Amino acid sequence: MYEDFEVRTSYKYLQEVIKVLNEPICMLGGWAVFFQVNEKFEIAQGRPYLGSRDIDLGFHLKESISNIELKNSALAHTISILTTKLKFKHLSFRLFKEIHTETEEEIQEGQFLPAHFIFPVFIDIIVDNIPKNFKEIMGFNPIDEPLLRKAFEKRENQTEVKEFRKKIILPVPELLLAMKINSMPNRDKEHKRVKDICDIFALLWYTGIKSDEARNSALKFTTEAKIKKYARSITEEDIQKASTQINHSTVEIKRVLDLLQ
Known about the structure:
261 residues, alpha/beta, 2 domains, 12 helices, 8 strands
């Protein structure tokens, strides 16, 4: 699904990002799933769980945040650190830097290469609310993930882990599960849809979610309609490709995914 080089490079910069940021750091997406399931997955499979190409960072913003508060927010400080210390560049709601696929070195400004030699490492800035003054102050529109609000509102909806000597906040498995269920039907790229299936299976199989409580666990944060939409979007081909990635049979994957219905 992802090239080893891509995941290895993303993980390398994930470490660099975490090391320079101030605690606590909230992570979402594929790397958040990785940190929730990897220990048990590695014991069972003898290899690490699937990594991610992108780095997703989550932030809480009040809807009524003032201009001064926004300029001094953790989000603003994070962007400043990443652009000044690590030299990431802006691209809409994302920060990125380009890596040479053969030398694995950063591509310098003004260096022109064929596209197949360029791998972009993306950091996505994700918020739970988008204040009305956000674009005016920050200059871009962020991704919003309303469910992220649940992790910031109640400590019971977040897990704290220590990675690279820093405290990282992760949404609990049930909350990550709901986020994946909600996003998967809208994926326009096959590899992202397959990765979502792998993540949903892994969250159900390798965390503390009990099989007889899987559906209710998801329904704490999502709806019947969204679960049905997610279920309809899965194809046999998707499951076959997911099976290849996580070394579980298609029968087993189907059985576990059906726990949500």
